[in-house]
């Protein structure tokens, strides 16, 4: 399968360093809204996009491979005539930019890997979730998705945000979501991580039950040469939305270091 032309939104100065933001399974590019204005204000050109099968991007037939998602990003950079970019990804987006860090290092200025994993089993869980979504639609997993994305206290005190994110998940095409579930179930990038040479920051949510800091984030940081791990308190899987100020501060600090 070849690359698809993903839906994108580009903001910020045309001559600014480019930051590409890659999103989570079940999200669209709106999940990065808290980060856009601070990045643009610091002079960055911010590129957000919808993963294939999500949002306004095409929904090609399965199977999807991680290299397909990576090829979509390379095609996006080519389309925008961007030679090198900073890449930040959360969850599935983090898996995608890890793959890019291994396979197209010449296109990468730095990496930020948020609330993600290099191997996220068991595969049977992902196969079952894909089956459920194909049978019942993404609305059937939206409530559970928000339960993973936000801590319970935050969701209770911000019901409008919880509902916004619930609707975001429910709007994802079932086939796109399911095909990405199957991709995650097959993924294992652990042995490839030492090949990454880009300056890398790994950010974890302290309360993330989907990709816990000790089980998932720390092994990534320890495997990538020179990588640094930061754990953000009171943050679950969509930490960039629940604790936007701290995630944005860490991202900006890393970009300016590199």
From TrEMBL:
Residues 17-243 form the AB hydrolase-1 domain. GO terms for molecular function: 3-oxoadipate enol-lactonase activity. It comes from the Bacteria. InterPro entries: AB_hydrolase_1 (IPR000073), AB_hydrolase_fold (IPR029058), AB_hydrolase_sf (IPR050266), PcaD/CatD (IPR026968). GO terms for biological process: beta-ketoadipate pathway. This is 3-oxoadipate enol-lactonase.
């Amino acid at each position: 399968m070849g690359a698809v032309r993903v839906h994108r939104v580009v903001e910020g100065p045309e001559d600014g360093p480019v930051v590409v933001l890659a999103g989570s399974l079940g999200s669209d590019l709106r999940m990065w809204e808290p980060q856009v204005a601070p990045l643009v204000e610091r002079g960055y050109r911010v590129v957000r996009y919808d993963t294939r099968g999500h949002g306004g991007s095409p929904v090609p037939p399965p199977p999807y491979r991680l290299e397909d998602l990576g090829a979509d990003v390379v095609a996006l950079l080519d389309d925008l005539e961007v030679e090198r970019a900073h890449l930040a990804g959360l969850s599935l987006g983090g898996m995608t930019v890890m793959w890019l860090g291994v396979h197209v290092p010449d296109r990468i200025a730095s990496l930020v890997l948020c609330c993600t994993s290099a191997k996220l089993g068991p595969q049977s869980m992902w196969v079952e979730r894909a089956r459920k979504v194909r049978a019942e639609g993404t609305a059937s997993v939206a409530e559970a998705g928000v339960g993973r994305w936000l801590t319970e206290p935050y969701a209770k005190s911000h019901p409008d945000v919880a509902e916004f994110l619930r609707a975001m998940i429910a709007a994802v095409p079932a086939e796109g979501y399911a095909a990405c579930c199957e991709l995650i179930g097959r993924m294992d990038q652990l042995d490839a991580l030492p090949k990454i040479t880009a300056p890398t920051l790994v950010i974890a949510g302290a309360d993330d039950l989907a990709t816990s800091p000790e089980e998932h984030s720390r092994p990534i940081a320890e495997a990538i040469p020179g990588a640094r791990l930061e754990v953000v308190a009171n943050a679950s899987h969509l930490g960039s939305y629940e604790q936007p100020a701290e995630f944005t501060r860490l991202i900006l600090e890393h970009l300016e270091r590199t």
